[in-house]
Design brief:
alpha+beta, BirA Bifunctional Protein, domain 2, Alpha-Beta Plaits, 2 domains, 11 helices, binds adenosine-5'-[phenylalaninyl-phosphate], binds magnesium ion
Length: 415
């Protein structure tokens, strides 16, 4: 979506975000610049690399977990409103009142009671209360982090939550009485006091198996990864998965066994849960070799055109975009009246005549003349050279050759 209408704005004490209005106060620290990111919904944009990655993760989860009738078990929630209450973002996840992660300096507050979600975990409790047992949440998250090649104040997370009954975790056995999810024990490094050691061990194995499977299916069998013990107020035990990018270990996700108190507060008594939260940008950077997190916000066709494919599993290695400006020329023609015409033929022609100077070609307009019964297509061609500035004459030259070739081999009439 183009930002022709503002999706979010701040005006005096009024803060508006995606059609909801809030009254600002002493906690308000969102800026117009930050708010301008809202509504871009990169994870929903067709062909955006973050959407490709989100789709691959979703497909993995769909394949991994099927209902007895063979349907995907996980539901996907990718359009939840980014403004959440402090209860959702913190309290529902057992984050203490004085915890550092609540600081005004680390979050974007709308007012005292509302903020832009700092993680997709903010939606866990509400979705569990609604009755979901297996779900994914995909969305933009906001943090007042530093900005560098791997940190940006707005990024995207994909959250996975799975709740299991005793039967789901153990299968059906003769003497089910021998198995139990819960016990009244001591909290240890390996499990919560309310969980049986065996149930916690099984959940850990399933969770790690699922996430390792995901990493190897995206990055390949030989990719080196490592588990690191971690701490989150909402899971115990907790881990982070790391992967090497250019010789450095980078954190791909956090995960763990959900604190039973969260499930109990959401009305669930007989299940045990695991959860993970991964950063889509980090996965995309590893998968495609994208060197800088800021590139995801690029509207430059040099970046976006590299991901213009329908099958999200298409292998791509990102190539640095030329620092030289593109030249954009349009071409319009009438299609041949009685002959087959396919845009794909024109795309091939443009690539063979223009070679590596053509960065992108798109159909931008199509209409049919009511009287003449002729259809006209307009294509936009973006030319750019990797090593130098292209002159307009040079581009015009190639453009003219494309027109001539199209007229002769595709029988179109240039307008
Ligand atoms: C969390 O946000 C937890 N909610 C994750 C979680 C969910 C744990 C469920 C347990 C159960 P963390 O702050 O580490 O954790 O962020 C999770 C992931 O988001 C990181 O592993 C990383 O991949 C990504 N990430 C974190 N900060 C940034 C940032 N500034 N820019 C880009 N990606 C980031
Ligand atoms: Mg972390």
């Amino acid at each position: 979506r183009l930002l022709s209408t503002k999706a979010a704005s701040v005006n005096g004490t009024k803060v508006e975000v995606l059609g909801r209005e809030y009254t600002g106060d002493h906690m308000t620290n969102v800026t117009p610049h930050l708010l301008s990111h809202i509504g871009r919904d990169l994870h929903l944009q067709p062909h955006h690399p973050l959407r490709h990655v989100a789709q691959r993760v979703t497909q993995h989860m769909y394949r991994q977990y099927l209902s007895p009738r063979g349907n995907p078990l996980f539901s996907v929630h990718s359009q939840l409103h980014p403004v959440v209450t402090t209860h959702q973002n913190f309290d529902s996840l057992l984050i203490p009142k004085d915890h550092v992660s609540r600081k005004k300096s680390d979050n974007f507050y709308i007012n005292e009671t509302h903020l832009l979600r700092a993680h997709t975990s903010a939606h866990q409790s509400e979705l569990i209360s609604m009755g979901f047992d297996n779900f994914l949440v995909i969305g933009d998250v906001y943090r007042r982090d530093d900005i560098d090649a791997s940190h940006y104040p707005v990024f995207h997370q994909l959250e996975g939550v799975r709740l299991c009954t005793l039967k789901e975790l153990y299968g059906t056995h003769q003497n089910m009485d021998a198995y139990h999810l819960f016990e009244n024990g001591e909290r240890t490094e390996d499990h919560q006091g309310v969980h049986s050691a065996e149930a916690a061990r099984r959940m850990e194995a399933e969770l790690k198996g699922c996430l390792l499977g995901l990493a190897t299916s995206l990055f390949g069998q030989d990719t080196e990864v490592r588990w690191v013990d971690a701490y989150f107020p909402f899971t115990h035990p907790s881990w982070e998965l790391e992967v090497q990018i250019n010789g450095e270990w980078v954190e791909l996700l956090g995960c763990g066994i959900m604190e039973q108190e969260i499930l109990a507060n959401a009305g669930v008594q007989d299940k045990i849960g695991w959860a993970f939260g991964l950063g889509l940008e980090r996965w995309a950077m590893k998968l495609y070799g994208i060197p800088d997190i800021r590139l995801f916000w690029s509207t430059d066709s040099g970046f976006l055109s590299q991901f213009r494919f329908d099958d999200p599993a298409t292998p791509v290695t990102y190539k640095a975009v030329s620092k030289y400006n593109p030249c954009i020329n349009d071409i319009s023609f009438w299609l041949p009246k009685d002959q087959q015409y396919e845009s794909a033929d024109f795309y091939d022609l443009v690539r063979s005549v223009g070679g590596s100077l053509v960065e992108q070609v798109n159909l931008v307009d199509s209409f049919t003349h009511p009287k003449k019964q002729l259809t006209s297509h307009c294509y936009r061609i973006v030319y750019r050279h990797m090593e130098r500035v292209l002159t307009q004459e040079e581009v015009n030259d190639v453009h003219r050759k494309i027109e001539q070739e199209a007229a002769s081999s595709l029988q179109v009439s240039i307008r």
